[in-house]
Design goal:
The chain is mainly alpha-helical. The chain has 6 helices and 3 strands; from the N terminus they run ααβααββαα. A 3-stranded antiparallel beta sheet has the order 1-3-2. The longest helix is centred in the last third of the chain and has 25 residues. The radius of gyration is 17 Å and the shape is globular.
Length: 141
């Protein structure tokens, strides 16, 4: 199996785990990914769309649902009113922490049979791969 096949299988399995975590908190996996991608100090809509690889209309629809649910708030930039910043409400911060707890529990269940050295190797490899993918993506946009 080539690395692309391994990564596709990993993404598929991880998306399934994300759905389990999200559904247990009564949100969709795409809503969970939106919440998890927003820094605690907020992010502009355009930066979030770029980070998630979504077009503006899809992101706006997802964000508006999360605003209605009380997890996000939208603010206009003081210098440029066209720029919308999204941030987590207190409920959104609690949801983000709950999602991380659920995902960490699912991760721990998945890797509990590995040795400490194997876990460390995986952690470092994933960190390097994530950085390389982000750099590659930014160079192509």
């Amino acid at each position: 199996m080539y690395s692309a096949e391994f990564l596709i299988n990993l993404i598929t399995d991880y998306n399934a785990l994300m759905r389990i975590a999200a559904q247990s908190l009564h949100i969709s996996s795409s809503q969970a990914l939106n919440v998890l991608s927003i820094p605690f100090d907020g992010i502009s809509m355009s930066k979030l769309a770029n980070k998630l690889g979504l077009d503006a209309s899809t992101l706006t629809r997802n964000v508006n649902k999360l605003i209605i649910l009380g997890y996000l708030k939208k603010n206009s930039n003081q210098q440029d009113k066209r720029i919308q910043t999204i941030s987590l409400t207190s409920e959104g911060r609690a949801l983000k922490e709950a999602l991380y707890d659920k995902i960490n529990n699912l991760n721990n269940n998945a890797i509990k049979q590995l040795s400490i050295d194997e876990k460390e190797t995986i952690h470092l490899s994933i960190e390097k791969l994530a950085w390389a993918l982000e750099c590659n993506r930014q160079n192509k946009i």
